[in-house]
Amino acid sequence: MGVAEGQEKAGAAAFNLAESGYGDRPDLDDDGREKRTGTLVTASAHIITAVIGSGVLSLAWAIAQLGWVIGPAVLVAFSVITWFCSSLLADCYRSPDPVHGKRNYTYGQAVRANLGVAKYRLCSLAQYINLVGVTIGYTITTAISMGAIKRSNCFHQNGHDAACLASDTTNMIIFAGIQILLSQLPNFHKIWWLSIVAAVMSLAYSTIGLGLSIAKIAGGAHAKTTLTGVTVGVDVSASEKIWRTFQSLGDIAFAYSYSNVLIEIQDTLRSSPAENEVMKKASFIGVSTTTTFYMLCGVLGYAAFGNRAPGNFLTGFGFYEPFWLVDVGNVCIVVHLVGAYQVFCQPIYQFVEGWAHSRWPDSGFLNAERVLRLPLGAGDFPVSPFRLLWRTLYVVLTAVVAMAFPFFNDFLGLIGAVSFWPLTVYFPVQMYMSQAKVRRFSPTWTWMNVLSFACLVVSLLAAAGSIQGLIKSVAHYKPFSVSS
């Protein structure tokens, strides 16, 4: 784990520079790094971009598996747990004091500072597996939405029973090409505008899906719904009901996944007012906004489609008309996920590049960088041969894996199941108890561990359901159909 040691030494050196007077420079922060300019608005935009993603598209299906009683209750429970644990995590950006302590630039560094090296390594493993999984999932989702635009036009021209097929592979190649270009942006500070655009797009396609659901209900749709969701013996078998219930938990967990980039987002905030207070407000805005949309999209989507709700209600063709509005919704998904991909892959880029620079500090290849002056007053753009090579390889590899496993619901459920407990619950809870010096077996310690254990059980069940669904999808995969 050389990167942690390198980053820690760099942070300590920067801190010493600040102590020596560099902190008085208007272009530098108290740690000697470039002045951070993030605000409540930009942090909220980053969070909404990360949270309101492709997960919203599967919520009608998830509610259909759980029913009117358990479905909304699970949504609310996940939102409350996510907000609560995010508030705990926001206090870990600085340690040991949440306001005046030393900065932790990444989630992993926060764990290392509060819980030690062993748990830092476990956290890093969980975080980067999740981040890689999310970027693969977003590649799949974008390709499906691009294909859905073509299919929507085909259905409009040739009828809803026409054999309208689209190749996910071609769309994934196009998406990868776009990401190769965007990945040359050096860091989070350079993509704030992309997050704001992506956040607007996520709200737009969620609103379109919501509006289409309302229109379908108002048009006299009488879809079959029940208090307990899909009916055993009618819609599904008993075993399938169980597996789908577990998988739906993973889908909902994925819909709330953003804790793994929370510290990195917080590191973009200016230091006054205190970063932890701003981040808590941003988390509340982000989670409450997304929960409102999630509840509306999930509940109204279930009301519109009932127990036969598609896995993705904009690409699974729960809606055919107006075809142009379905197209607009899918275009918004594509634009949003172009930005969201960058939000989730930037920490991976920083990790690998930090490790490489600490391992080979004198390498000419690693340190070479040219600044291109963009036309029309767009500013300067730094280009590094190392960034160009390694980031391109990363995008290509994620696209190849996505081509091999292009299954929307199953993949999202698995990502959500694997990441929810360790990253959203376990490490924030453990770091809070370490910082606050919570006494062992005290009421607070007991309830915190009960929460953590309950979420672990949910994650294990969700992972089992998603793996079963993935195996089933692989067995029935047809290359020239759009997975939903």
UniProtKB/TrEMBL annotation:
Residues annotated as transmembrane: 40-63, 69-93, 128-149, 191-215, 282-303, 323-344, 388-405, 411-429, 450-471
Sorted UniProt keywords: Amino-acid transport, Cell membrane, Membrane, Symport, Transmembrane, Transmembrane helix, Transport
Annotated compartments: Cell membrane
Residue ranges of domain Amino acid transporter transmembrane in the record: 37-471
Gene Ontology CC: one annotated term: plasma membrane
Predominant localisation class: membrane
Tagged with keyword Transmembrane helix: yes
A Pfam family the protein falls into: Aa_trans
Stored InterPro entries: AA_transpt_TM (IPR013057)
GO biological process assignments: amino acid transport
A GO MF term: symporter activity
Membrane topology: Multi-pass membrane protein
Family according to the record: Belongs to the amino acid/polyamine transporter 2 family. Amino acid/auxin permease (AAAP) (TC 2.A.18.2) subfamily.
Name assigned to this protein: Amino acid transporter transmembrane domain-containing protein
